């Protein structure tokens, strides 16, 4: 059994994020889903983004993991994936990272530093998603793999963002089933 922290996306802790966490729990894992928005959810990415600008999401995320053991897998969707990556790269003891529809570079201005040895990562996203595939995240994911890190990139056909959230109209059940299968395989090996 692995302990996972799953950070929600910019729309908040939606029922679809909770359902994704439950699917990982059904695989025998403990999954924490911190609510950085204190119950607020949003219908559009722009609304969620505007709300998030008034928050110190780093401080909220730090508080959310403060009492958890060090040996966890950090996972996150889009905006939440940034927090997951930050912890996987900077919090000692990380067991892995699952970055859904996001990946920051491991060098340069937006980097959290080098990828730590022994921390496996999975990066998942759609191959034509405007935010993931066309704004540099996919390039960053490929850079991570090319660095020699224990990292895998999984691409799914499509052009939508937040495809794994069953409470949203863009939900892709087939892609999400495969995503869950792959994430459970990682959690079973760490």
Task: Characterize the structure shown.
With 190 residues, this protein is α/β, with parallel strands linked by helices. 36% of the residues lie in helices and 16% in strands. The chain contains six helices and six strands; from the N terminus they run βαβααβαββαβα. A six-stranded parallel beta sheet has the order 2-1-3-4-5-6, sandwiched between helices. Strand 5, helix 5 and strand 6 (151-156) form a beta-alpha-beta unit. 42% of the residues are buried. GO terms for molecular function: hydrolase activity.
Give a brief outline of the structure:
The protein has 190 residues and is α/β, with parallel strands linked by helices.
SSE order and pairing:
Layout: E1 3-7, H1 15-26, E2 30-32, H2 45-52, H3 57-65, E3 73-77, H4 79-90, E4 96-100, E5 121-126, H5 137-146, E6 151-156, H6 173-189
Parallel strand pairs: 1-2, 1-3, 3-4, 4-5, 5-6
- Per CATH, the class reads Alpha Beta
CATH topology, by name, is Rossmann fold
Radius of gyration: 15 Å
Number of domains: 1
**Strand order, sheet with most strands:** 2-1-3-4-5-6
Main β-sheet: number of strands, strand sense, barrel status? 6 strands, parallel
Please describe the structure with a list of short key phrases separated by commas or semicolons:
alpha/beta; Rossmann fold; hydrolase activity; EC 3.1.-.-; Dienelactone hydrolase family protein; Dienelactone_hydrolase-like
